[in-house]
Amino acid sequence: MPDLSEVTRGRLLFGGDYNPEQWPEATWHEDVRLMKAARVNSVTLGVFSWSMLEPEPGAREFGRLDTLMDLMHENGIGVVLATPTSSPPPWMGRLHPDTLPVTEDGRTEWWGGRQHFSHSSATYRRYAAAITEDLAARYGGHPALTMWHINNEYCTYDYGDEAAAAFRRWLRERYRTLDALNEAWGTAFWSQGYDTWDGILPPRLPHYLRNPGQVLDFRRFTSDMLLECYTAERDIVRRHTPHLPVTSNFMPLWFGQDAWRWAEEEDVVSVDLYPDPRDPLGAQHGALVQDMTRSQARGPWMLMEQAAGPVNWRGVNHPKPRGLNRLWSLQAVARGADAVCYFQWRQSRQGAEKFHSGMVSHAGEEGRTYQEVKRLGADLERIAPEVTGRHLSADVAVLHDWHAWWAGAQDGRLSGRVEYPDVLRAWHRALWQAHLTTDFAHPEHDLTPYALVVVPQLYALTDAAIDNLLAYVRQGGTLVCGFQTGVADEDDRVRPGGMDARLRQLFGIRTLHEWWPLDEGESVACEGFGGTLWSEELEGDGTAEETVPYKGGELDGLPAVLRKGRAWYVSTLPEPEALRGMLASIADGVGVRPVLDGLPEQVEAVRRGEVLFVLNHGPEPVTVDVPGTHRDLLTGADVTDRVTLDRHGAAVLRP
Amino acid sequence: MPDLSEVTRGRLLFGGDYNPEQWPEATWHEDVRLMKAARVNSVTLGVFSWSMLEPEPGAREFGRLDTLMDLMHENGIGVVLATPTSSPPPWMGRLHPDTLPVTEDGRTEWWGGRQHFSHSSATYRRYAAAITEDLAARYGGHPALTMWHINNEYCTYDYGDEAAAAFRRWLRERYRTLDALNEAWGTAFWSQGYDTWDGILPPRLPHYLRNPGQVLDFRRFTSDMLLECYTAERDIVRRHTPHLPVTSNFMPLWFGQDAWRWAEEEDVVSVDLYPDPRDPLGAQHGALVQDMTRSQARGPWMLMEQAAGPVNWRGVNHPKPRGLNRLWSLQAVARGADAVCYFQWRQSRQGAEKFHSGMVSHAGEEGRTYQEVKRLGADLERIAPEVTGRHLSADVAVLHDWHAWWAGAQDGRLSGRVEYPDVLRAWHRALWQAHLTTDFAHPEHDLTPYALVVVPQLYALTDAAIDNLLAYVRQGGTLVCGFQTGVADEDDRVRPGGMDARLRQLFGIRTLHEWWPLDEGESVACEGFGGTLWSEELEGDGTAEETVPYKGGELDGLPAVLRKGRAWYVSTLPEPEALRGMLASIADGVGVRPVLDGLPEQVEAVRRGEVLFVLNHGPEPVTVDVPGTHRDLLTGADVTDRVTLDRHGAAVLRP
Amino acid sequence: MPDLSEVTRGRLLFGGDYNPEQWPEATWHEDVRLMKAARVNSVTLGVFSWSMLEPEPGAREFGRLDTLMDLMHENGIGVVLATPTSSPPPWMGRLHPDTLPVTEDGRTEWWGGRQHFSHSSATYRRYAAAITEDLAARYGGHPALTMWHINNEYCTYDYGDEAAAAFRRWLRERYRTLDALNEAWGTAFWSQGYDTWDGILPPRLPHYLRNPGQVLDFRRFTSDMLLECYTAERDIVRRHTPHLPVTSNFMPLWFGQDAWRWAEEEDVVSVDLYPDPRDPLGAQHGALVQDMTRSQARGPWMLMEQAAGPVNWRGVNHPKPRGLNRLWSLQAVARGADAVCYFQWRQSRQGAEKFHSGMVSHAGEEGRTYQEVKRLGADLERIAPEVTGRHLSADVAVLHDWHAWWAGAQDGRLSGRVEYPDVLRAWHRALWQAHLTTDFAHPEHDLTPYALVVVPQLYALTDAAIDNLLAYVRQGGTLVCGFQTGVADEDDRVRPGGMDARLRQLFGIRTLHEWWPLDEGESVACEGFGGTLWSEELEGDGTAEETVPYKGGELDGLPAVLRKGRAWYVSTLPEPEALRGMLASIADGVGVRPVLDGLPEQVEAVRRGEVLFVLNHGPEPVTVDVPGTHRDLLTGADVTDRVTLDRHGAAVLRP
Fold first, then answer.
1. Which of A511, B138, B518, C272 gives 20 to 30 Å between its CA and that of A468?
2. Are residues B400 and B329 in the same domain?
């Protein structure tokens, strides 16, 4: 299969979404001038072009796109061509109301925004296939074309009647018999036994709590339906251009999409990444998304969208201070990106996103935003030869699974304060702040490459996943599991004992008496640290080799942390410093060490291939010890034993 | 009529909801073994069995229920048999969408949860009657059967078209003429005069505030429609088993149900009680519900549901610390319960309530939860002979009325911070913390048995209720009324002067100039204490014998509290200590004294029949003076003059 | 055209909404007695009389209104007769569901409240015209009739199908061609190009952000549709009574109504004003509304509704302390009102507003509320000869425009914390606290009468408005502009550079690099003061004569405030004291001074005609220097050089 290297050919891609429909042709030529000055080598065309290309049903108006493709080619800028199917033209909803999604409480989502399509609508899919077919036929051989971009940020739900019918088909395929479905959903409780497939609905507004099995399957179904939309279009373009890679851009950690499964269907994995410039841990959020995307890609990946300045969808949207755009872009490259792209090239003057920044802001060429973009383009060109296509290696893996998340995120759970992404982020943060490079992995992946595997929280685990974890430890791996892991099976059926018996045995737990979730502002004292969010009333079976007890309170003296051999169980969420210390110490015990010793807290160091990235996330200059002599690819200067970084400064060091 | 004593026959019932549909038969036998070990003597079957019993319309599948009834009988466990009508099978909504409730803004509540039935649906009622008829016919003579349990926690609203038609029928019956309705609702305001009955709707989403008379009647109608559902099923089972009592379990202080009126239609009054283990006043909440349920039952009552551990519907669901389940169960018995039951016997492994605890938790037989349940079963068996069937006597009554609550809870009221249940609870708390045993009563009940009557807040009072209060004081009773009492009549028509003239005269008030609600965090100084939530600009008529003035602020010098003879009016909500002191002093003045003198704050003492319950709600051991020698029925030991209680400990003392 | 002076004839109107349908005739006579005792000389009849007048479709029942008109006339009380069209009778919704409004997410607003009519419904408009015609025909010649009051507080939206059709008609008229519409709305973005007019909808619930151009035009359309409802009725009554003035009462600063445009269609401008008695700046809110209403009226105006005590629609509704009703009423007169009226005469006993105060409260004649009303009536009679019809003069104008507000209030804006009314109020507050009398003006009005023009924030400005501002400065005016002014054109298209180039040149700004909105609780240091809410990264062009820089942080050293000649730009919102000081100083520099020197902070002074109003908003008595000798029209006493005011006291001084 084609991959990203055929697009990059040794370069780092640099550019962004380009939506020239918004401007007259004169502006296109101005755009090209500014792009070239900024070393832009790739743009994404067509994301929102459906109403331009097909202004009325069945019409085709390719003229302006022809001009644009030629213009890009003439100027040496590659085109990632998007199918325009994320935003159907107004005529589609008007003529075909069946294409509009319906919310869980029966309200239609109308046109006038974007993504107002039902993933289950046969009509929508027919129109989407037709325009995709014609686009692929017309531009498949165009010399500017480098990659296909299917749709944009798939992210819709639909609870309407056509989705209901599709849900029933999906369920029949999964369960074959109604008995199996009734068993899996536990419909014996609350008198929910289905006597016909026709009786099944999406989990629409109920009087009281929904059936969690139904909700879980509806989430699986939604991910699968969206994936069907993707693969249908992918197959069309692939037929025309088998040599070109295909992608669709993820929103990071979007709840509705099993990105492990999706990634398998993509040639290039791409993601849109928007950390809040005001988040003191914005860089860690970036690192998490980058690590996850790289792990899904199993190699170089594409940063499809980021913002050169502010976005427009937070309550308060802050611009990026001087240097931050460059710093975070280099961070993405450090963590495996071979493409640094933006939404969007030129900031809109109209429409819903005109306060979302562009590479060229409202201030234009003289504006700070474009000036910094231009500098970054030069930087990327400078470092590309030494980093493009290179891999990272990590000794630590963090396990993550959408199905576990979906299963756990139910209304009637013990604590509404436990939000899976927060727990995942807390554990990744501990590793990141300990300067340990980590991959993400699925719980059924081969874990043997890793010296240390960390499970922040996997509420539901399949038998295969449990076997995988046991085998990993048996084969010498070190496993650290956070609270509320292994509670349920893949149908969200609670395991006898409230936690899988094999896991309890692994950790030396006899009985899990009760879960003790903590209130807002509450913490629980453990020997040597404080726990937050959760605690558990555990009784050991006497086989644990090491335990950290709770101190005081109802759980006084009971084990908070157990270690049996190479398996650790942590029944609370230790405060950030404690969790970092615990993981750093466990890692150290198995020979996993930071990229550099003695790194200041605000400095991130990542080795990609041979090249060492040193990134200063702090607001003050800092000096970092880097033993030996390196060439800083950004400046061309040699540095010996230590490097000084400006605020938000970076060094890209080749030994 | 049959009553609870025919079921208890000298025992305290102990057990809970049993939903064995969820497990294979093998588990049923395990269940019986554990039930017997825990002295379980009563289970409720069938609450959620409709789809098992009637898997498709008109089908009947009684096999498993037959087996279960026999199994219980063979093991000496009585069965409270529930009609399964609270959770219709999916086929009902599918084939009969008219059975589904509709919200005030037109959204359907679909199947997939529970209680998705319209109280007004003729179709639903027909199906419900048919399954009830067949259940009664089949099991009416079964030797395990001890009682009927109709539906479960009636609690639905419906604003749909069939409910609208029913509402109109209900209104015609209430008002006979449109003129009377227009007059009662004050439709002359805002041009709302109805010219035909057909023009009347439930109070659906308006542009601006709804008509409060319409809303009030809709609340009455809702309670009555649900009651019709209940009595229809009750009448069916009663026809088959006139010797067996019938109940339906209340949710305590549920807004939608006039439980005074409902209780009159029940042979046994039962309630579901779930205080928050983290609420420092959880025990007081329990006492309030228990006092109210006992008052509705006018004797022993049934604790139909409580939780052995956590529930699953609070934001954060805390387990019960060691001992608390036993303590709160004994509290219920102390306050008149002859049955201590749980939702549910065995914790679900699947479905929406799998994180709601059971008597057998996920941890199983070895889990702390079951072990404590077992101990409690033995305790109850020990004390039963001396307490079952015994009555309590109280010298204080707290008045409560749903119609007053309904009338007051309107959108356009003066203070959205005044929530009736909070005010009610504040006054009950004061009495509970003063160690005074209290009943609840309806404002039209005979109050002469009580030395002291307390009205926390009755915004609306009928003329009959006002006459009743006046007669009570005339006949020597002492009455203490909280603010905003007697403002409106039964149609929610404000009484001239803003407070009924007879009440003003009773308290010595000439003019109520203005109400002065208080903001969040605001309090008002009165002589000797602080007031919260509310204050009033009152002018006395010179006849009050005692007044406590406001100090400072706009109301400086005006009366905050007035006493005229035996009638007190309290125009603010005194801070907890002040209200407790005020009520204790007034009670003392009429010879009403705590059960025991010198009780520590965290200790509750209640006398039921001859037996004295002493309950330690505190986290530390405590010693209590109990003059004389008693036998502690829990331990069999004699105690003289003082008894020491562990944390959450209890003594049940017979003189 | 007729105006207010023909109604007042030298008197100040005093009275209120009178809804006697709610009471029996006996009460009407009691009402008249109390009205006369309070010097009431004007009442508004008929606001909610539709179901009385037309109890079933087409019926006419004028009997009671005849009696009331005669009764008023016999007692010398003028009648402002309202068309009853704000609250259709229940039969209208029942027989004509097409008259009911629909929310943006498709929910119907039912009858049972008020204002449940669709502005676009042909059926509604037909019924409204018919009843208006018959009212005008019957009462046009009645001697009690003094003025027409059309509808009441127009304030509805409608997203339903008939509104959609009307929206399309409105758009066709505005744009003529689809190309023009597509251009104005920027539909090229997000694939929203319309191929037929039929494809256009109101901005109903989308999946993601709506098109801001569509939303802006829908707001314009809504204002225009409501205005059509108004003018249709106005034209009918005008035909019958060309000599009588017509009004419709505004809600102050109601978002949905372009009151500049509406005012042009009214003979009398009237407003409903309800400051919160607990708001420490309630008087300033009153002053703002009064200044705006006077500016719309270009002379005397009518306070159509205020509350004698509490309202019923705030979370917590506070009464007015002793004296406040009088003080705020005199404030309205000081600022140009020739009518002081209330909602409503007698407080309702039933219905949704029974806890909204009346001139006669529940406490009745003896209640403080009526007693204070009575005193006020006498006061107004005393001062009327010297103030009625007199004008105010102001040297300062604050610019305000609904279209700018509408355009800026979009979902995807940079800061959800920036609410236009708050910014407007902050600037007016600064002027009010500096004791400067101000008008409001539209940005295209002639500004030459003013020495100082202040623009708190006009996000969008037409070219004509920009030309007007430039011309104003060119001609010697002094202009102070707040942040985020001139960002967009009238289609909400961002001006190149993010701020209009002509304005940038006016202020000496070369580049607006980025907007820096501030978080909750965040402030930004500027030299000499702190800024809140917002800041900007500006680069001067070297022509500014004065700049105040930001200090520290990301904007350190960049200009926060620029002055170039007589034009000031303030890129943040200075803290209240700082903004007051800045504006007072600028005003002083152009010779604009407070009405009185040395005024204490809590005292307001306004000169109307020859008469000086001195108003003490503080809770303590205060002495104010007033050079010279004046007659206090309230007391008849002469005061020399200083006047002492009680708490909430006032003096009305004639030289």
1. A511
2. no
